[in-house]
Amino acid sequence: MSLITRGLRVCYGSSLPAIALTSTANKFRPFCRTYSVTQKQVPKKMAAERTLPQIFKFVDKNAESYKALLKEAVAIPSVSCDPKYRDDCVRMVHWMQDKLQEVGASTELRDVGYQTIDDKQIKLPPVLIGSLGNVPTKNTICVYGHLDVQPALKSDGWETEPFDLQERNGKLYGRGSTDDKGPVLGWLHAINAYKGIGEELPVNLKFIFECMEESGSEGLDELLMEKLKPEGFFDNVDYVCISDNYWLGTTKPCITYGLRGISYYFLEVECAKMDLHSGVYGGTVHEAMSDLIYLMNTLVDKDGKILITDVYKSVAPLVESEKKLYNSIDFDPEAYRQSIAAHKLAHNGVKEQLLMHRWRYPSLSLHGIEGAAFQPGAKTVIPGKVIGKFSIRIVPNQEPEEIEQLVFDYINKKWAERGSPNKMRITAQSGRAWTENPNHPHYQAAARATKLIYQTDPDMSREGGSIPVTITLQEASSRNVLLLPMGAGDDMAHSQNEKLNVRNYIEGIKLFAAYLYEVGILPK
Ligand SMILES: NCC(=O)N[C@@H](Cc1c[nH]cn1)C(=O)O
Ligand SMILES: [Zn+2]
Ligand SMILES: [Zn+2]
């Protein structure tokens, strides 16, 4: 059975059927198992008292060099969604390969084929695979991260050049600083710190670093399921760890056991082969933009309720035990509102409702329109073709294929109601939601490491964003997967002035080192 779920599905305006690609069931894993943990009775206390403080000192001493390396990484504009930057993506992967090799890892670059954009075949950046240590008595952690970033222009409203990392007031501003270059480099520095104090790594490590995460991780599922898994890459993996998300707020750390999936749509309407002068052609053509706005306005109401027929039908029901969890989470809606200067939050700003609607209910967002005259100035053009972009963050137990079909059917129905003579086409690209068992010893190890660094017990949280490969890693390895965030909740990933606090970067490196240590003493 194939596990490829992130293919492009396409549906045309008339009654043409959608091309269905293969998919697997999205299994929502309830986290009801409990474990009794007997830690290896190795000299835990002794070693912790000796090794980790030395590592922490080493990390503090080398803070400037860590910032310098992040500056180098941020300077490579590895924007995955724009083929114009494809060479930079490839350069970024090679750069990281060199760094992994410098810490002693063996590496290889795996080809994942081509991507189709506007009927053109564009080569995907290779995936970087690495391995460090192969001691049979040690636990093995598989670390995943991504090297690509969202687009950024200074003219979007950045205070400084997005690809030139700048330190201001204890914050490192730059595209990719928190998502995900800072955390990826954090692993390198943690390894380097063990080496720096002359200590052996407490675990074996395996690495998977890609450069297409922000664009649906094209080719990665196939590499994991059809190549790496059969080749035995996951055979000795005991745990999987990803650092590619953020704390819920700005002061309290968390560990994350759930992500929403994403179903991303490109809705295209064409009325003419070129843009038209609205004084010459206005009043004589059926305008593509009017059709598109009509369609896009049928998707979601003013309160955020998705209007697509049956879209909520398969959402996992809320059970009492889960309901209680939201109450104890440390989350301040007013601070959250103020941090983004929103006028008013949805759901009357009620904490539990906000968390549920971020984590366990779907949401639909309208992202933008390609082909629209978005530059400043009174351009009087009728765009010949426009592409509306929207996505649905999907949740357990929503299947990407099921949601895509509901969207295609709904758009076709609305299109028929519109009765436009224009050409309409919709394509989709989706990744599944993921949940994990946070009562696992792996989570307890990460919680101990977090407490050691931040002197507080972390919240066990879910997250509204998506890392499509997470569930694939869970299935490929059959191991417990954990998200260990480095950045803070106000880092503004994907947005203007993305940043990583110096404190989160430096303490995050220590956290990773402590996490490696704690997993190292879990029973094999
Ligand atoms: N840090 C994870 C992240 O930002 N993931 C993206 C994934 C994405 C983007 N487009 C399609 N998938 C996200 O937006 O959640
Ligand atoms: Zn990311
Ligand atoms: Zn991202």
UniProtKB/TrEMBL annotation:
Domain Peptidase M20 dimerisation, residue spans: 258-416
List of residues binding substrate: D244, H277, T380, R393, S466, H494
PROSITE patterns named among the record's database cross-references: ARGE_DAPE_CPG2_2
Gene assigned in the entry: Cndp2
The name this protein goes by in its record: Cytosolic non-specific dipeptidase
UniProt similarity note: Belongs to the peptidase M20A family.
Binding site for Mn(2+) 2: H146, D179, D244
Cofactor or coenzyme needed: Mn(2+)
Cofactor note as given: Binds 2 manganese ions per subunit.
One GO-annotated biological process of the protein: proteolysis
GO terms of molecular function: metal ion binding; metallodipeptidase activity
Binding site for Mn(2+) 1: D179, E214, H494
Sites annotated Important for catalytic activity: H277
Pfam name, any one: Peptidase_M20
Organism: Vanessa tameamea
